[in-house]
Amino acid sequence: MIDSIFVGMAGLSSYSRGLKVISNNVTNMNTPGFKSSQLQFSDLFYQGGGMGGDNSHQFGTGVGTLGTYLNLKSGDYRQTGNSLDLSCGGQGFFVLQDEAGNIRYTRAGQFDFDAQGQLKDRSSGAAVMGMDENGKLQPITLDGLNSSQPKATGDINLNGSLPVGRDHVIDGVSVFDVAGGEHLLKLTFTNTVTGTPSTWKVTISENGNQIGSGEFQFSDGKPVIGKDMVPIAFTGGSQPFSFRLKLSPDVRSAQTPANSAMLAVEKKDGYGLGTLTGKSFDAAGYLVATYSNGQTVKGKRIALARFDSAEALEQLGDGSFIARNSNAVHYGTSNREFGEIKSGTIEVSNVDLSQEFSDLVLMQRGYQASSQLVSTANEMIQQLFDMKGRG
Predict the structure, then answer these.
(1) Strand positions, DSSP E, 107-167
(2) CA–CA distances in Å: residue 116 to residues 99, 119, 139, 150, 312
(3) Three-class secondary structure of residue 98 per DSSP
(4) CA–CA separation, 242 vs 200, rounded Å?
(5) Would you say residue 11 lies in a domain?
(6) CA-to-CA distance for 111 and 122, rounded, in angstroms?
(7) 233 found inside a domain
(8) Are 53 and 138 found together in one domain?
(9) Are strands 161-163 and 252-254 parallel, antiparallel or unpaired?
């Protein structure tokens, strides 16, 4: 009967551990990237048994726990509106490095750049690691991405119709010099020679000062190949540069119908100095920097890790894990094997409340039964003492 008390105590201890695991799961139901665990039970060793293999009188010593099993199933994904919140659509983990140089892993994906321009995990403060072309882990930083260098305008493409018999003016044409300075130009088109071929003179000016001029030639109202481009040497900026006025093959010189579009700028290149206005990650895991001049530049690529099994991971807290077996870790980048990166979303906990509440009932029943077992064994021992006392 004393052995029965120890068996019941083993049950109380094991089921209390089970309750602790369930409590941890339930309280972390809203923790981003949290992975639930399940306690594994096992019967303890057996005593007794006869000689010659007679096991008809073996007695168990209770229940024990083997440890917790980590559930790596993905949770749901939630939009956050923060471009640096990331989720991974597969089984990949983000790779972190703490201040001591230790490698950690997380599914939480809540990142931000610190004052030094290094991408950090908001919970633990660990550095988020990227991967270079040689497969080597490296921190993700904004080095070289804080501004976008200017580019001088090289081509201005024009499209539409030139009206025969009167001048045509395009005002406010923006161009950029080598230093990124913006200049607003006025283009004046004059039909100097009519008939076929016809000639249009274009005069380029800024603030009333002529910058340059040239001629376009038309045949049967269409631009003549080789005569459809005018080079302009611009000397009004901090550094001289040249650009070209180019006519689209669709440009026409004729009596313009009322519903035809007048000659205008179709597209042009060049831009000024850009300041960093946005940071995000694309589906391939590359850092994408956006600038005030409309340009985008790709930076370093975020690294992902994949594990052979859940047994290779150990939970640390702060949404991070360490590898129990380094040989079970495989590094890569966003793809079908590791998972696709999604910017502006986080993975929420994979806790299944219905399953947790079902397990909670089982733990409660097991604990109550073990408690009743201890009480019954105690009562039987007390009765035995009473009987011996009366004798």
Answers:
(1) 111-113, 119-121, 127-131, 137-139, 147-148, 155-159, 161-163
(2) 15, 9, 12, 24, 34
(3) coil
(4) 21
(5) yes
(6) 5
(7) yes
(8) no
(9) parallel
Q: Strand, coil or helix: what is 109?
A: coil
CA-based Rg of the chain, rounded to a whole angstrom? 38
Do 143 and 288 belong to one domain?
A: yes
Cα separation, 221 vs 263, in Å, equals: 13
Of 213, 246, 268, which one is at a domain's C-terminal end?
268
Helix (H, G, I), strand (E, B) or coil at 362: helix
Token output for 11:
């049950």
Q: Is 370 within the bounds of a domain?
A: yes
Tokens of 336: 């079908």
286 and 143 share one domain: yes
Q: What is the pLDDT of residues 127-174, one digit of tens each?
A: 999 999 999 999 999 999 999 999 999 999 999 998 887 899 999 999
Q: If DSSP codes are grouped into helix, strand and coil, which group holds residue 227?
A: coil
Is it true that the peptide bond before 231 is cis, omega within 30 degrees of 0?
no
Q: Are residues 294 and 243 in the same domain?
A: no
**Does a cis peptide bond (omega within 30 degrees of 0) precede residue 257?**
no
Classify residue 77: in a domain, yes or no.
no
Same domain (yes/no): 242, 167: yes
**Structure confidence at residue 380 (pLDDT):** 81
Full domain range(s) for residue 264: 155-268
Tokens 């931000």 sit on residue: 112
Q: At residue 255, what is the residue type?
A: Q
Q: What backbone phi and psi angles, to 5 degrees, belong to 221?
A: 80, 5
Whether 256 and 306 share a structural domain: no
Round to whole Å and give the CA distance between 109 and 128: 9
Question: Which tokens go with 244?
Answer: 């070209």
Q: What is the pLDDT of residues 5-30, one digit of tens each?
A: 888 888 889 989 999 999 999 999 99
CA 101 to centroid of chain Cα atoms: 23
What are the structure tokens assigned to 177, written together?
């010099």
- Token representation of residue 42: 């096992």
Q: 255 pLDDT band (50/70/90 cuts)?
A: low
Arithmetic mean of pLDDT over the chain:
89
The one-letter amino acid at 213 = S
